[in-house]
């Protein structure tokens, strides 16, 4: 038996916390009866509905995806733009992205139907390193990038210190390639941090998430992750 909110999360309907909200709001039925109490135990034989829609108790699956540029990190888009799940048409489980990458940012993105894991990996208290490589306008120097190694205030919010490495500079074209390692995931965080250093981003790619790298994947490719790889991600994060 499993807790109802955990089953809803594993079905890919919502995170466990959001599933708890659904239950309290009376939006969940078990075997035709509305359930508003948290902690109710269910089995695979129970019929569970959220907003009148039956859910299926899927086995958790995990994927690493090389997101191309100009693709939305979502399962649908009201402007009919490409979304990440367009690349997973052969996957029967209802998966969704863990966090997001901006529309014009490429690179490593995780997708799963496991709401628990998604919540743990995206919660601010869990520090999973994310490594980005950016092509920026301007000649990067240690002095210019030093502010990212301290707590910065971006758009009125404090962001944790980051690590940087200057991979290359070109004084003739006034371009540089910079690597930035962060463990948060605020909207446009890397772009805003580099812009604050006077190095606006022209192109951005996430190359690593925890211990995971893109390996031999090409844009649009994905591979399924082993549970041990997910466990290592969770172990590497600070609880």
UniProtKB/TrEMBL annotation:
The keyword RNA-binding applies. Transmembrane segments: none annotated. GO terms for molecular function: lyase activity; RNA binding; rRNA pseudouridine synthase activity. The keyword RNA-binding applies. Pfam families: PseudoU_synth_2, S4. Keywords: Isomerase, Lyase, RNA-binding. GO terms for biological process: enzyme-directed rRNA pseudouridine synthesis. It comes from the Bacteria. Its EC number is 5.4.99.-. Residues 2-59 form the RNA-binding S4 domain. GO terms for cellular component: cytosol. Belongs to the pseudouridine synthase RsuA family. This is Pseudouridine synthase. It comes from Tetragenococcus muriaticus 3MR10-3.
């Amino acid at each position: 038996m499993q807790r109802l909110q955990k089953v809803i999360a594993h079905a890919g309907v919502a995170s466990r916390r959001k599933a708890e909200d659904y239950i309290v709001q009376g939006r969940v039925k078990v075997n035709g009866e509305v359930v508003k109490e948290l902690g109710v135990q269910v089995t695979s034989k129970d019929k569970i509905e959220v907003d009148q829609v039956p859910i299926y108790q899927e086995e958790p699956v995990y994927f690493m995806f090389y997101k191309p540029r100009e693709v939305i990190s979502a399962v649908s888009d009201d402007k009919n733009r490409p979304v990440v799940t367009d690349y997973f048409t052969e996957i029967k489980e209802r998966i969704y992205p863990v966090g997001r990458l901006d529309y014009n940012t490429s690179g490593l993105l995780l997708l799963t139907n496991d709401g628990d894991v998604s919540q743990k990996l995206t919660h601010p208290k869990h520090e999973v390193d994310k490594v980005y490589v950016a092509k920026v306008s301007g000649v990067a120097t240690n002095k210019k990038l030093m502010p990212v190694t301290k707590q910065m205030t971006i758009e009125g919010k404090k962001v944790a210190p980051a690590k940087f490495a200057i991979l290359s500079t070109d004084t003739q074209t006034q371009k540089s390639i910079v690597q930035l390692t962060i463990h948060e995931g605020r909207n446009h965080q890397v772009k805003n941090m580099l812009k604050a250093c006077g190095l606006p981003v022209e192109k951005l790619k996430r190359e690593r998430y925890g211990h995971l790298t893109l390996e031999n994947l090409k844009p649009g490719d994905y591979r399924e992750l082993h549970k041990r790889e997910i466990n290592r991600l969770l172990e590497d994060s600070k609880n």
